[in-house]
Amino acid sequence: MAEIPGVRSALVYEPCDKGGPSGDFYDLFPAGDGRWCFAVGDVQGKGPEAAVVIGLARPWLRLLAREGYRVADVLDRLNQLLLDDATEAADAAARALVAAGARPTLPGDGPQTRFLSLLYGELVPFDGGVRCTVASAGHPLPLLLGAGGEVHSVAQPQTLLGVVEDATYASDTFELRSGDTLLCVTDGVTERRSGSRQFDDEDGLAAALAGCAGWTRS
């Protein structure tokens, strides 16, 4: 994890399935020109297929960020990359089946579109705080805990990556000041169950975060 001037960062990563690659991934890296970028993603499925998508997404995120693309533009381009890659994989599978003497594939056969939920953001420290720009594509929205205990989401819901051709994404910008906390999670947190209830029912995650106001990191 990259160190960002004036920012404390922490990570908790607890995969449910200890036996193989999960569909969740994260990254925090310097992007040049006084910028740092972060990502929290969740790929449809697990195992080798999920690993393939993560192997595409993570280096492309870093490349696009370091090329200076805006947050929303990064999501636009990654969305198209996933769609193009899925099409190429389906075409390759169809050619292999035909070469083996099988019937040609029909629409809907072959590898499915590779869905990816992603929260992606850019951090730019300045004197007195950090300017943060974020975009969420089908991902649980990030929550901002203010120094006074108030909690609110700081992004707008948008469609998953790898679903809609030529989708256009938008971003939101806000400032982090001393004492503020930005919480980013995957649905492994928000969908944690207690009987029939999920943790995020009735804004349970926001309520839990508000209860952390005033805590210090030991």
> In which range does the helix fraction lie?
25-40%
Low-confidence stretches: 90-94, 107-111
Q: Could you tell me the number of beta strands?
A: 10
For the sheet with most strands, the description reads: 5 strands, antiparallel
CATH class assignment: Alpha Beta
Task: Compute the number of structural domains.
Answer: 1
Quaternary structure of the protein: single chain
Global morphology? globular
Given helix and strand content, the structural type is alpha+beta
Number of helices: 4
Task: Enumerate the strands of the largest sheet in spatial order, edge to edge or round the barrel.
Answer: 1-2-3-4-7
CATH homologous superfamily assignment: PPM-type phosphatase domain
Write the layout of secondary structure elements.
Elements: E1 24-32, E2 35-43, H1 47-66, H2 71-99, E3 116-126, E4 129-137, E5 143-145, E6 151-153, E7 172-176, E8 181-183, H3 187-190, E9 193-194, E10 197-198, H4 204-210
Antiparallel strand pairs: 1-2, 2-3, 3-4, 4-7, 5-6, 5-8, 9-10
